[in-house]
Each structure stands twice: as structure tokens, then as C-alpha cells.
């Protein structure tokens, strides 16, 4: 198997950074993971995603882990497993969830990560922790900048460059200090050097998909930038990426935010749970950056490096340019495509009636592309 040979090569590699030895990953036995998770007990379950269920566990040395267990074995899942393992094993950055190890015995495929005690951004914005309001403005700013650093690393500093393809609130995990770690590279795809985009089957989650990706399957770094823009709006406003206006009509968070930003009504954009406690300049910056990221025209979106610079407010000139961006003068241009195609989110065919955003299935996409 492809991932086996990669893993065998990777295992002996000493990861030395700035003179400090970084812990490497290792192979876990099924027996060890059974005992760590109390036989994958239901009480240990942290959640479920496209790949399978995630369980909390504790190893013999007391350290806490999260174990992702592949739901159904298939050739396709096998490919996803090897993609995730291969990419994770290569990538090390303070804002990217690193791999602790894996297990492949019989038809069982498991990935072991560090457990993130503050769970995901999703759980704080819309889930089990949302009532506790643990995300004050400082933490939100940290999460915005840290997750941008993680994605910028994937796009610009890893070799070859990596597109994440599933940037969303449940894939931003929070450590004990609420520092963000971007997770889930199972959908990631290597971009060959020199290629501007790769055409692939669309994967990802409704509400976060760039229109050119949802409609035409064109995956590039700028698709992640679009999803990141949606994530930033979610982080600032506490709203979900798609809002149900009526049983058949849904509005994207960008469509809601753009007119308010154009009118300078930033206080209406802030999450009411912040109780007005935020830094006005920073909120404005986050919203403006988010909206240029979520432009429907990929060529108008900034790169993650530019996003980072803007979020940090490092260049006064660039911030002034941002404020004068045509998007805020002519909002219609950003929500309508060059070809006049409406946004993917507006296409009723691919909007499913669901409580939580779910990965788009191939049937849904085929339907959407036919339509
Ligand atoms: N290392 C971890 N520490 C704590 N919670 C985790 C960890 N990894 C995943 N989770 C949580 O487990 C749940 C399931 O994660 P999973 O990645 O399988 O699904 P997802 O993010 O909802 O969707 P997708 O399959 O598209 O990534 C999520 O709520 C996620 O936040
Ligand atoms: Mg996930």
C-alpha cells in the first residue's frame, strides 16, 4: 500500500527545528487504541464526520488523544486515509493539528491526534459551548490570525503546496489556551508545481464552497480563501454560514454582511454575545477582509499571505486600499459571477434541508452540475 511505504520512510526522520527535537508520529496497535478509548465506547465519542467517528482516549502515559475511526472500508476511503496520513506526516506548524500516529490492522483504519480540550470553533459558536461565551474578542482575533497562519503555511510554505478544501468551523480546533489548530487534510490535494488549479470532484461543506469550485470543480488556493472568508464572518458575527429565510430560500452569511458593511453598520455585524465588547477597528478589519475573501470572483480574492498582513493590520496603506475596494462601492459585483451565474448557495438544487452543514455528496453535485 502506498501509505505504508511512505510511513516506513517517514518514521526514522528526525524532525529537528531550531535545535529542538519535535516529537514524531508512530504506529499504534489496535489493542492499544481499544484500551485507550474503552473499546470505542459511545461515551467517549466526540463527534462524527465524513470519515467516521472521533473518540476521546487516554494512553498509558496519561496523555489524551483523539482517535478518528474510518466508518466503512472501501477503496475510496482507503485513498482518503492515505492522503490524510501522508499530508499530516509531512506538515508541522503551530496552527496545524499534527498527527500522533495511525493504525492499520485488517480493515480498521484509525488516525491518532492530540486531543484538543477546547474542541472545535463550531462547538463554541453554535454547539455545546455556545451558551458559555468563552470566546471573547481577543480570543476571536487570535483564532482568526492563527488559523490564517496555518492555511497560509499550507498554501505558501509547504512543498508541494497544499489546498485544504474543507476549511470550516468544525475543522478549527482549540487547544487549552484557545490557540487554533486547523485540522482535517483528508480532502486536501497536492498541487503540482506550476499548475494554477486542479479539476477534481467537489468535496467540502455547503455554505463554505467557492462558487467556481461548487459549479465547475476548479480547486485552487483561492477556494480555501473563500471558505476562510465565510469562517471569518462566522467568527465575528456568531451567525451560521447559511441562514434559512423560508423553507426554500437560504441566504449566505456574505450576502447578509456585505450591505451592512457597505453602510458602515459594523456594530450590527458583531456577535450579540460579545455584548459590545470588541475592538471596533479590528472588527471592521475582520469583516472587510472576510468580504474580499468571499468575493465570488476568484481572481479578486487576496492570497492567504495578504489576508494575514491585513488581519494583523501591519500596513496602513493596504488597509486603506481594502476600505476602498470596489466590492464596498459596487456590492452587486461580488455576489454575482462574471458569467452571471448565481452563487452555488443560491442554487436550490444543492441546498439540502439540514440542521448542520454536511459534506456535499457526489449525487448532490452531479444534480447541481446538471441543473
Ligand atoms: N483532535 C481533536 N480534539 C477534539 N475534538 C476533535 C478532534 N478531532 C475532531 N474533533 C471533533 O470531532 C468531531 C468530528 O470531527 P470530524 O473531523 O470527523 O468531522 P467534521 O469536522 O464535522 O467534518 P469533516 O469530516 O468534514 O471534517 C468534530 O466536532 C470535531 O471538532
Ligand atoms: Mg473535521
From TrEMBL:
**Span of the secretion signal?**
none
Task: List ligand-binding residues for ATP.
Answer: 68
Keyword annotations from UniProtKB, A to Z: ATP-binding, Kinase, Nucleotide-binding, Serine/threonine-protein kinase, Transferase
Q: Where is the composition biased (Basic and acidic residues)?
A: 349-371
Q: Which residues form the Protein kinase domain?
A: 40-319
Entry's family note: Belongs to the protein kinase superfamily.
**GO MF annotations for this entry?**
ATP binding; protein serine/threonine kinase activity
Q: Spans of biased composition, class Polar residues?
A: 330-341
Q: What is this protein called?
A: Protein kinase domain-containing protein
The answer to whether keyword Transferase applies is yes
The record's InterPro entries line, in alphabetical order, gives: Kinase-like_dom_sf, Prot_kinase_dom, Protein_kinase_ATP_BS, Ser/Thr_kinase_AS
Q: Where is this region: Disordered?
A: 330-371
Keyword Kinase found: yes
**Could you tell me the superkingdom of the organism this chain comes from?**
Eukaryota
Amino acid at each position: 500500500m502506498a501509505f505504508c511505504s511512505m510511513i516506513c520512510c517517514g518514521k526514522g526522520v528526525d524532525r529537528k527545528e531550531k535545535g529542538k527535537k519535535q516529537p514524531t508520529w508512530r504506529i499504534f496497535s489496535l489493542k492499544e487504541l481499544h484500551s485507550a478509548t474503552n473499546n470505542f465506547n459511545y461515551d467517549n465519542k466526540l463527534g462524527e464526520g465524513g470519515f467516521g467517528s472521533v473518540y476521546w482516549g487516554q494512553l498509558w502515559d496519561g496523555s489524551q488523544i483523539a482517535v478518528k475511526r474510518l466508518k466503512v472500508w472501501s477503496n475510496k476511503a482507503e485513498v482518503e486515509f492515505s492522503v490524510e496520513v501522508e499530508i499530516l506526516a509531512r506538515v508541522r506548524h503551530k496552527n496545524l493539528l499534527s498527527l500522533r500516529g495511525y493504525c492499520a490492522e485488517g480493515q480498521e483504519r484509525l488516525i491518532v491526534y492530540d486531543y484538543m480540550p477546547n474542541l472545535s470553533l463550531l462547538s463554541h459558536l453554535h454547539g455545546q459551548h455556545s451558551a458559555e461565551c468563552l470566546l471573547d474578542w481577543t480570543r476571536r482575533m487570535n483564532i482568526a490570525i492563527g488559523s490564517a497562519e496555518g492555511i497560509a503555511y499550507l498554501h505558501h510554505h509547504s512543498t508541494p503546496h497544499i489546498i485544504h478544501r474543507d476549511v470550516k468551523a468544525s475543522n478549527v480546533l482549540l487547544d487549552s489556551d484557545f490557540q487554533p489548530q486547523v485540522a482535517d487534510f483528508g480532502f486536501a490535494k497536492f498541487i503540482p508545481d506550476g499548475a494554477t488549479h486542479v479539476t477534481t470532484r467537489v468535496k467540502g461543506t455547503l455554505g463554505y464552497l467557492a462558487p467556481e469550485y461548487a459549479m465547475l470543480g476548479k480547486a485552487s488556493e483561492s477556494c480555501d480563501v473563500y471558505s476562510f472568508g465565510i469562517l471569518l464572518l462566522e467568527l465575528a458575527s456568531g451567525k451560521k454560514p447559511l441562514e434559512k429565510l423560508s423553507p426554500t430560500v437560504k441566504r449566505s452569511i456574505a450576502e447578509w454582511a456585505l450591505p451592512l458593511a457597505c453602510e458602515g453598520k459594523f456594530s450590527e455585524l458583531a456577535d450579540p454575545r460579545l455584548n459590545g465588547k470588541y475592538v471596533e477597528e479590528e472588527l471592521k478589519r475582520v469583516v472587510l477582509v472576510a468580504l474580499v475573501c468571499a468575493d465570488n470572483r476568484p481572481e479578486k480574492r487576496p492570497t492567504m499571505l495578504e489576508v494575514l498582513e491585513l488581519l494583523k493590520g501591519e500596513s496602513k496603506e493596504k488597509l486603506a486600499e481594502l476600505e476602498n475596494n470596489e466590492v464596498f462601492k459596487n456590492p452587486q459585483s461580488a455576489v454575482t459571477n462574471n458569467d452571471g451565474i448565481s452563487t452555488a448557495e443560491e442554487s436550490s438544487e444543492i441546498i439540502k434541508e439540514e440542521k448542520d452543514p454536511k459534506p456535499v455528496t457526489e449525487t448532490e453535485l452531479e444534480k447541481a452540475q446538471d441543473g
